[in-house]
Structure formats: C-alpha cells, structure tokens
Amino acid sequence: MAEDLIRYSELVERALRGVVRETLRRVAKEGLPGEHHFYITCRTGTGGLVLPPRLAARYPEEITIVIQNQFWDLVIGEEQFDITLTFGGVPEKLRVPFAAITAFFDPAVSFGLHFQAGTASATGAQVPAVTQAAGETPDDGPDDDGPTENVVKLDAFRKA
Question: What is the distance between the alpha carbons of residues 73 and 143, in angstroms, rounded to a whole number?
Fold first, then answer.
C-alpha cells in the first residue's frame, strides 16, 4: 500500500471537529434547541485546557462535561471554546481546545462523534469514528463522591 502523503485521517478528524465547533457556535448564538444537550469528553493533559485545580486533580486523565440547562459565557474560537459551568454549586470557567475532545454526544438524537486519542498515523489507523448509537445514553453521574452536576462518565457511549 502506498504511503498516505495527503494524510486523509488528519483531514477527516479536522472536519469532524469542525462539526463540534459549528454546533457550539450555533448554541452560543441561538441557545440549545428543543431537547438537545451535549456530553463532551476531553483529555485533561492536553495543552491549552484550562480547568479549576480541584477538577484537574479529581480528573487527571479525562473529564466529561455536560452542556445542558445551566451554562454561561459560551464563546467559540477557531481552536477552543470557553464556557462557565457549575460544579458542586460553584461556577467555574473552562477553556477547552477542540484538539482535547475525544467524544461528543447528543443523547437527544443519539448522535455522537468519537475521536481517537493521539495523532493520526500515516497509515490512517486512527481515523475517528462517527457513531449514531440509537438508544444509548451516558451514565447519570460520576462514580466518585461529591456533587459535580456537569461531569459524567461516558462508559455507555464508549461501548458503541
């Protein structure tokens, strides 16, 4: 097989991250329509990701945030988005680079995007998968103690 000098897997991943970016732009401008809401999973070790220290300590590898009823200051850039969410009743500002996102899921319509961790290889082995898993929804909350209404685990989504 010939070497992929065009790097299609990187182009596909960039395009799919654009779906997340455009979706969030619409929400920032118009609000969440109907029953739509989002679970967004991020690698916490990614450069540019800004989390409050208590969340970074609690979720050292990965965090899933929920954008649903209460969120503020959603600002979308080309490379990241900023948002304020409450965690344990305390509003916290986050900055999430699109490159840190590993999963995006809208349970209202069972639509999801799952991005592979790491960079795409020249062989295309890490092409992101588009998932539309009917009837699958994430767990209701974290497995550990404490109120974190905007953090969940996405085990059900990952099994898709």
Answer: 28
pTM of the model: 0.74
CA distances from 123 to 3, 9, 10, 26, 40 (A): 7, 8, 11, 34, 27
How many Å apart are CA 102 and CA 152, to the nearest integer? 14
What residue spans define the domains of the chain?
Answer: 8-29+36-158
Question: What CA–CA distance (Å, rounded) separates 130 from 110?
Answer: 11
Using alpha carbons only, what angle is made at residue 97 by residues 46 and 22, rounded to the nearest 5 degrees? 150
Tokens of 72: 């503020």
Does residue 154 carry a pLDDT above 80?
Answer: no
Provide CATH code, domain 8-29+36-158.
2.30.30.220
Tens-digit pLDDT profile for residues 78-134: 999 999 999 999 999 999 999 999 999 999 999 999 997 644 322 233 323 332 222
